[in-house]
């Protein structure tokens, strides 16, 4: 039978020598034998036990609990626990990726953003915030309306062409405001026409839902509660006036 020193075991498993020695010290996984000089030697079965410990640790199970179940737990149960942990990690990473997309889109609009917007990337409150926004949506929109919005409304966390179109609309309005162009100017009217086209794509001809959405959008407080990007009031006012002019001219 082949035996491996503590150092070789640590290297083989990709853990520190200190970890292997600690598991031995707390009698979690002890080596099968020791040589005359006191060097600890691990068998293939010992290494398998260490691998089981490492898998269980990946499930966030405390060492004291691992110590209790190590010799009773089945490999199927270990895999199921590991699968659950991976699914939780995937959900957390998905939320973090969505928030990262949101921040990148915010930078496109604002150039600079506050550092507190980065804190959720540490994994704090992202799921709670999503659930809270879902609850707020239920209070404002019907179930059918939510389905339409969920399917068609571009979200700041999306990395899509549709989001880029809306970002460019806001940036174009910012340019008009900076250059002193009025909502009834040629550029203002082109922006309004583009918004009408995008609205048609988003709301699929449901004028009532479109109006309801824009009413919500004009309320800074409600927009924030629903997780919509906080568009400045002067931008919304410019767009509203431009769209009125388009309606009158048509």
From TrEMBL:
Record InterPro entries: DNA-bd_dom_put_sf (IPR009061), MerR-type_HTH_dom (IPR000551), MerR_fam (IPR047057)
PROSITE patterns: HTH_MERR_2
CDD domains named in the record: HTH_TipAL-Mta
Name by which UniProt lists this protein: MerR family transcriptional regulator
Lineage: Bacteria, Bacillati, Bacillota, Bacilli, Bacillales
Keywords: DNA-binding
PANTHER family, per database record: CHROMOSOME-ANCHORING PROTEIN RACA, REDOX-CYCLING DRUG-SENSING TRANSCRIPTIONAL ACTIVATOR SOXR
SUPFAM superfamilies: Putative DNA-binding domain
UniProt GO MF annotations: DNA binding; DNA-binding transcription factor activity
Highest taxon in the source lineage: Bacteria
Occurrences of domain HTH merR-type (ranges): 3-72
KW Isomerase (keyword) present: no
Origin species: Sutcliffiella horikoshii
């Amino acid at each position: 039978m082949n035996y491996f020193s503590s150092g070789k075991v640590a290297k083989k498993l990709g853990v520190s020598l200190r970890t292997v020695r600690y598991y031995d010290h707390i009698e979690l996984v002890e080596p099968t034998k020791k040589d005359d000089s006191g060097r600890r030697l691990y068998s293939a079965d010992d290494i398998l036990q260490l691998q089981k410990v490492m898998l269980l640790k990946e499930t966030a199970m405390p060492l004291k609990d691992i110590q209790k179940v190590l010799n009773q737990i089945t490999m199927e149960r270990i895999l199921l626990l590991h699968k659950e942990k991976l699914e939780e990690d995937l959900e957390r990473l998905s939320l973090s990726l969505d928030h990262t997309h949101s921040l990148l889109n915010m930078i496109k609009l604002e150039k600079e953003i506050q550092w507190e917007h980065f804190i959720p990337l540490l994994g704090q409150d992202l799921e709670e915030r999503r659930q809270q926004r879902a609850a707020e949506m239920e209070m404002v929109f019907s179930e059918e309306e939510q389905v339409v919005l969920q399917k068609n409304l571009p979200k700041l966390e999306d990395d899509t062409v549709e989001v880029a179109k809306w970002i460019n609309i806001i940036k174009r309005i910012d340019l008009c405001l900076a250059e002193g162009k009025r909502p009834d100017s040629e550029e203002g009217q082109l922006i309004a026409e583009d918004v009408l086209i995008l609205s048609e794509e988003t709301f699929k001809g449901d004028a009532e839902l479109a109006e309801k959405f824009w009413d919500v959008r004009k309320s800074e407080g409600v927009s924030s509660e629903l997780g919509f990007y906080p568009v400045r009031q002067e931008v919304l006012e410019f767009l509203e006036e431009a769209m009125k002019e388009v309606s009158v001219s048509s």
